[in-house]
Amino acid sequence: MAHIHLEDGSFYLQWVIIWTIIALVIIGICIFWLRNVRKMDSRLMTLAALCTAAAFAVFQIEIPVFGGVHLSLTPLIGILAGPAVGGVIVLIVNVFSAAIGHEGWGIIGANAIVNMAEIVGAFLIYTWLTRSMKMRALYSAGIATFLGLFLGNAVMIGIILVSGIQGKDVVLAELSLVAAANIAMAVIEAFVTAYIVAYIQKVRPDMLGVTRVAERR
C-alpha cells in the first residue's frame, strides 16, 4: 500500500499545513455524515473497532524494501465499513502510528488523504462491480483492492512531488521504484482481501450488508 514514511521536517511547513487542513475537512465531512446521515449503530461501531485494531497491527508489519512497504487493509475497511467510517479509522491509525514513530506528526494529514483515496476508490469500485456488474464478491474485492491501492499510490506520488522534501531533490525515478514496490504489494493485498471478503460472505454475509443497512436509515 501507499504510505509516506517520512519524519517531521521532511515537508515544507506550508505543505504540512495544506495537507493537514484538507485532511481535517475530509474527516469533518465523514463525522458530519455519521452524525446526520448514516448514523452509527452498535454493529457498525463494533466493526469499526475491529477494523481499527486490525489496520493498526498490519501497519506495523513492515518489509524493509524501498523505505518500507506493508499491507494496509484500507480497501477492506472501505468495503466493510464504508468511506465515512473509514475516514475516522485512518485518522486514528495514523495518529497511533505517529505516536510510535512510524511516521512524522506532520505527515498525518498527507497519509490520511492517501488512505482515504484507497478507501473511497475501493468502496466505489466494489459497489459498482457487485451491484451493477453482478460480479462475485471474490473478484469484485480483488479488483477493487488493487485499483484502490493503485489510486492511493498515485495520490502519494503526487503529494510528494508537489510538497518537495527539504534539503533533497525529489527524483521521479526513485519514486517510481517505491511505486513499483507498492504495486507489487497491492497485488498481494488484492488476493488477501479478496479471500477475506469471500470468506465473510460465506460465513457472515450480514457483515457485508452493514454499510447498506446503515445507508438506508
TrEMBL record:
Membrane topology annotation: Multi-pass membrane protein
Main location: membrane
Keyword Cytoplasm carried by entry: no
Pfam families reported in the protein's UniProt record: CbiM
UniProt-listed GO biological process terms: transition metal ion transport
Localization annotation: Cell membrane
Membrane-crossing residue ranges in chain numbering: 12-34, 46-67, 73-96, 108-129, 141-165, 177-200
GO cellular component, one term: plasma membrane
InterPro entries reported for this sequence: CbiM/NikMN
Record's protein name: Cobalamin biosyntheis protein M
Annotated source species: Methanocella arvoryzae (strain DSM 22066 / NBRC 105507 / MRE50)
